[in-house]
Amino acid sequence: MRALPAIALAVCGLIASGCGGTAAGGAAAGQAAPATSVRQTPAQRVPPASEPLGAEPAATRPLEGKVVVIDPGHNGGNYRDPKAVNRKVNVLTQWKACDTTGTATNDGYSEAAFTWDVSKRLTKILKDRGATVKLTRKNNDGVGPCITERAAIGNKAKADAAISVHADGSAAGNHGFHVIMPKKIDGPVDKVVGASDRLGIAVRDAYKKGTGLAYSTYIGRKALDYRSDLGGLNLSTVPKIFIETGNMRNAGDAAKLKDPAFRQKIAVALANGLQHYLKA
Questions:
Q1: Mean pLDDT computed over 84-100
Q2: How far, in Å, CA of 123 to CA of 111, rounded?
Q3: Cα dist. 273→52, 90, 137 in Å?
Q4: In the chain, N or C: fewer CB atoms in 10 Å?
């Protein structure tokens, strides 16, 4: 989630813009139930091939009544308006750029496009499971919103859980994923630090199980990192985490992140982690 080197915008670093447990059983966890000759209940039904991976049968909506906010990192039009994205905003522990361009793979697949695609897939799965889902941006053609606004969207929605989707832009030899969680800062996030920690662990475990990607080799401990410099976390009053789904500058990670089928795996894994947390 570092800023593209060819663009003179604020450097993203590790998400300046804010850049295993799975739910119990069967289709509700995005996993097909085993075939059987015994008459199956709707909850045990194996989805036919025509149903998308991660879809929830109509009779089983385990996230009914839950609100999830998904924050797709960056935006595809950020590079067009450096003045807007470089504007400084107060994240309580420091002043930071409103947003950044994000990073990209070596052949130009942008983090903004990646996070938008994964977030749309995740939205569909969660809605199929009964959740109400809100996104912090409507498309991948605009600018922003600022990291402060992204936090405010989750707060206004009174989200039961919020997740900011990113991919990193570290050195080519680094690989793997990590989850970023908030620290206490004597601010609004303090009351949800514990819940955010539980959310982060649930998502980490489900992501590892669902994608097979390794824990980050360069940040955090067992794929968990705690930070106090991200506005999207510092200003949140609801449980919220960031996930760096892989390193776009690493050839192995990048090949997976560019694959639509693997992005669907990512979305199902994230949905399973969110469901595990929300149903715990």
A1: 98
A2: 18
A3: 18, 31, 22
A4: C
Least-confidence region, from 4-18, 128-142, 217-231: 4-18
3-state secondary structure at position 41: coil
CA distances in angstroms from 10 to 81, 86, 266, listed in the order given: 12, 6, 28
Active-site hit among 51, 111, 149, 244: 244
Amino acid identity at 184: K
Q: Is the peptide bond before 239 cis (omega within 30 degrees of 0)?
A: no
What is the greatest pairwise CA distance in the chain? 63
CA–CA separation, 65 and 42 (whole Å)? 20
Cα 53 from Cα 31, distance rounded (Å): 8
38 Cβ contact list (under 8 Å, min separation 6): none
Of 118, 60, 62, the C-alpha closest to 277 is 62
Residue 34: predicted pLDDT: 37
Read off the tokens for 232: 């999207």
Encode pLDDT of 210-233 as tens digits: 999 999 999 999 999 999 999 999
Please state, for a pLDDT cut of 70, what percent of the chain lies above it: 79
Residue pLDDT, tens place only, 249-259: 999 999 999 99
DSSP reduced 3-state for 167: strand
